Amino acid sequence: MKALDADPFSHETLDDPWPMHETLREAGPVVHLSRYDVYAMARYAQVHAALVDWQSFPSAAGVGLSNFRYEKPWRPPSLLLETDPPGRDAPRAVLSAVVGPRALRRLRQEWHAAAADLVDHLLAGTGGEVELDAVTALAEAFPLRVFPDAVGIPREGRENLLPYGDHLFNAFGPANDLVRNGQERAGELTAWVNAQCRREVLAPDGFGAAIWAAADRGDLTVEQAPLVVRSLLSAGVDTTVHGLAAVLYAFATHPAQWERLRHSPELARVAFDEAVRWQSPVQTFFRTADRDVLIGDVTVPSGAKILMFLAAANRDPRRWRDPARFDLGRDPSGHVGFGMGLHQCVGQHVARLEAEALLTALAARVRRIELAGRPVPHHNNTLRAWKSLPVHLALD
Ligand code: OVV
């Protein structure tokens, strides 16, 4: 087995992760990252197999670098993310129903109208041409308009959602400068998020209240309910923001694909999944080996942390033809951008509905979308994130 000195969490890598992913994929089915004494998988076949094999690669020791067997987690572990069956089954079943396709049907019209309204306001009085920052004006603005309302949290303090998520996703990585900088506000942000999970503050018709209703039915305990709400607020904001940023970046750099979406707006969901494959807004998660596991000719020792490169698997040429191309003509299903297996993203239908609404609204009004300046990545230990994406829009 190869040992590599690559640093997935350096600023250089976060700025442009793709060359390192290729190095890791080509180094073998599993490699050792000496800097952190962890193993890494970057090929689709191994990443997929490991994600599905939750018995060998459980999550309860944490899905970050820190091993909960030896280190105290910085916040009480998530009942969804950082647990295994059987304890995870009830929270997962409840949340799947609360944000599943059936529950989302009542939001579809409303979210499409909200997206149309947002886009109309951005374009109003601009005389056919407009420049804007697609991160703040679209990728952040749209989820922040619809998602906190859908959960049912109060308006006050919503500006804390993105910084909380940013720190949370940094905290899955090593204690580098990104984590240290976030620690300053972590206590205050955590206290605010926790306060939004209480039954009294949640609107009666939102996802949050539906989770509490599950506790009333006995499907969850009253101790579990606020932590399940916390998962929505933790995993549901930055992920969708950067997923939307990814698909907007994709279209701004692939004019022929935008033409295609304009012609066939029913491709909006495929486009979003293809962007999730192509950019992998969540780049990595760790697992922990529960026993000595043989992979190829390498034994990953019991207790070892293994870094799963979802982003590298999503561009593995062994699985995808011309993987670095953003292409609405391909079938992106099977990508591991939402994970795979038991822990596969429970909120993926929410993300797809947000993307469908926003892309449909844009496709109806915008003839051309192109970069109007240099896209600026936002460095995060887990997320492929964007600080700014200056775009030029030409209207119909
Ligand atoms: C998938 C994910 C990311 C971050 C936080 C959580 C889940 C959570 O359940 O808190």
Textual characterization of the structure:
By secondary structure, this protein is of the alpha+beta class. The chain has one domain: Cytochrome p450. Helix content is 47%, strand content 13%. It contains 15 helices and twelve strands. The protein has a five-stranded mixed β-sheet. A three-stranded antiparallel β-sheet has the order 4-12-9. A hairpin with a 2-residue loop joins β6 and β7. The mean pLDDT is 98. It binds 3-methylbenzoic acid. 3-methylbenzoic acid binds at residues 78, 80-81, 168, 230-231, 234-235.
Tell me the domain tally: 1
| CATH architectural category | Orthogonal Bundle
Instruction: Look at the structure and give the mean pLDDT.
Output: 98
Rg, please? Answer: 21 Å
- Terminal CA distance: 56 Å
Shape: globular
CATH level 4 superfamily: Cytochrome P450
Number of helices: 15
Largest sheet: 5 strands, mixed
CATH class: Mainly Alpha
CATH fold-type name? Cytochrome p450
Query: Looking across the biggest beta sheet, what order are the strands in?
Result: 1-2-3-8-5
